[in-house]
Amino acid sequence: MLSVSPVSSVNFRSNQIDLAAPGKYSNPVSPEQSVVAENAPKKKSRKFLKTVLGLVATAAVLVALPKLFPKAIKVLSAEEKEGAKFMQKAAHYLASAGKVIGKYTYEPIAKLFKKAPKS
């Protein structure tokens, strides 16, 4: 039989060590402080807002790129796409994404804020 030797001489089975007792390494909370901590306003996470703003900024860039660089970033026809190099294909896909995003997001929102023609 193998005998098991304790790793340390500290015995946690007795009531000799009270980890919650006030002392050098404990930080007891009074009942008054715990009530104040429970009633404190909770800080809201802004991850959702940052995500939405990041998506809006990305969409705006994708919509604006073909308009800013019409010769470099443009939608290619099927024949042009077959003979295109890697960067031309990448520009084609950026332009296609910008066109779709503009069609379904930017244009409907712009129509909402467009002034109605006066008759």
Structure explained in plain terms:
The chain has 119 residues and is an all-alpha fold. The chain has a domain at 47-113. The protein is built from four helices and no strands. Helix 2 crosses helix 4 (86-113). The longest helix has 28 residues, at 86-113. It is elongated, with a radius of gyration of 32 Å.
Helix/strand structural class = mainly alpha
Number of helical segments with 4 or more residues: 4
Low-pLDDT parts are none
What kind of oligomer do you see?
Answer: single chain
Strand segment tally: 0
Order of helices and strands: HHHH
Strand content: under 5%
Mean pLDDT: 76
Evaluate the radius of gyration.
32 Å
Approximate helicity band: 40-55%
Distance between the termini: 103 Å
Describe the largest sheet. none
Can you describe this structure in just a few lines?
The chain is mainly α and 119 residues long. It has helices spanning 31-39, 47-68, 78-82, 86-113. Helix 2 crosses helix 4.
Feature tags:
119 residues, 54% helix, mainly alpha, 4 helices
Question: Which secondary structure elements does this structure contain, and how are they paired or packed?
Answer:
Layout: H1 31-39, H2 47-68, H3 78-82, H4 86-113
Helix pairs in contact: 2-4
